Amino acid sequence: MMCRRFGKADVKKIVKEPGYYDEIGHWVPGEETEVKVHPAALLPLNPDELTQDQGGTFTTNGRKLICYADISKGQEVIGNGDRYTNFGRRDYDDYAPELNIYILRREDESDD
């Protein structure tokens, strides 16, 4: 399987705990925890994936994440030092059950 064979990317998903109001009414933001995703392969998007998504077009800075972890749409991911947002999951269950392929957009990209 490609993910196990080539899955050498350093990938962590960001789990955000919800914030809360303390006893005197001040907002306390929730903490972020980095959870290692292994095995994981982080690949460039192919030309079809650059324009195909419902959320619009992506740039060559976008990535495809192949892994067995569950990552929610909109959840942030750190891949090889860059921060990305998950824009959705591609369905490949017919080929490899439990394998997830996510389309990621790099966080520092502007929408102009």
Q: How would you characterize this protein structure?
A:
With 112 residues, this protein is mainly β. It has a single domain (2-106), classed as Thrombin, subunit H, CATH 2.40.10.270. Helices cover 10% and strands 41% of the residues. It has 2 helices and 9 strands. The strands form 2 sheets. It has a 7-stranded antiparallel sheet. The protein has a two-stranded antiparallel sheet with strand order 2-3. Strand 2 (20-21) and strand 3 form a beta hairpin. The model has no long low-confidence stretch (mean pLDDT 84).
Largest sheet: 7 strands, antiparallel
Low-pLDDT residue spans: none
Mean pLDDT: 84
- Tell me the domain tally: 1
CATH topology: Thrombin, subunit H
Q: Write down how many β-strands occur, each being a DSSP E stretch of 2 or more residues.
A: 9
Distance between the termini: 38 Å
Secondary structure layout plus pairing:
Layout: H1 2-6, E1 11-16, E2 20-21, E3 27-28, E4 32-37, E5 40-44, H2 47-52, E6 63-67, E7 76-79, E8 82-90, E9 100-106
Antiparallel strand pairs: 1-4, 1-7, 2-3, 5-6, 6-9, 7-8, 8-9
